[in-house]
């Protein structure tokens, strides 16, 4: 079993979870900047962590501190990017997946001209990556849209956001196209249904003329169209560029061979696929259209929308994979947490400290299913485990549990490639500890690099190499042949 010589090994981060510097050099406030840390809420209660109201947003706007708004401070990557990229280079990274904060380029989303200080910052980041021969993979929208667009239009519910996003994208293509070949439009576009505010700026109490559910599906449609137009612009402005779409791969098993369980798991998987179907195959699948019709949802489309989707398909499919799911028709079955989604607990799988079930074989299954269905190049852009890391008396972090998790998943990944899957990269989430997307914690640690900071922002910000740092360095050195 061997991977391509040019296989892209690396890691993935997001601007809102690492940069900090939320209110300097012209940056506007984003939806991430009002996401609060809730220390009294169970970490497995994602619904409570993702709840947002207009009142909560106004309270956050009035509070200029960072203590309970951790994404405002991140891990200070904004000022320490040279040091952090140097550490990634030391591990041998071939690629780094990162995102551009929309609010650094257009602070409120509607300015006539972009913020030059924001452009200058990202050029410096890309120059640093270039010095170390690290290929960037850039996500245009990764849970950090301008808060003003949420306040004014209820986010992506309004079609106006298509043009605003395309304008932002065009600036990125023109300014950074000489540095970036691989692009992604929306991070986990399907997540609009799981956390509408985080992904699309939708606030439920603002849904007056339409239902909350209608708002979600309309916002999704607008993002699909925006992604297709951005793909067209990318190809026009950057020769040889590749534009991908990204899916949260939520592979779902039936809890038993009871046909009702099988049907529920099938429904879950088809729903998951539909988001990639629209962007990779270029059209709404018939069953998905019937699903919307049965729910009484009628999407508002422009005449050319379907044509735009058909003519501007994604070049490759990127996806995140953390765990599998299980479904049962029995409502008494114990349920388990996952990547902002709950499912029935699988008795055959262990769980992380945050309740996510560990299923390496599920990654192999996911790769085989996705490649068989779409037959386009694939890349795994998120895979990892959040854990409670401890620094010992010698200032070391022994994270064998993380090494075990990653080793098993990479092994299954290699087996899928051996069976014929066209896979061109793997960027684990995340190479350095950062602020969790769902619970806004840093104590839910993912990185090969430890950051000395606690959930309230206390600490030196010192970077320490974990055992996994040296392990992953060897994995990259041997192109995945030596997993330890």
Automatic annotation (TrEMBL):
Gene3D superfamilies: Glycosidases (3.20.20.80). InterPro entries: GH, GH_1_N_CS, Glyco_hydro_1, Glyco_hydro_1_AS. The keyword Hydrolase applies. It comes from the Bacteria. The active site is at 382 (nucleophile). Keywords: Glycosidase, Hydrolase. The keyword Hydrolase applies. Pfam families: Glyco_hydro_1 (PF00232). This is Family 1 glycosylhydrolase. The lineage of its organism: Bacteria, Bacillati, Bacillota, Bacilli, Lactobacillales.
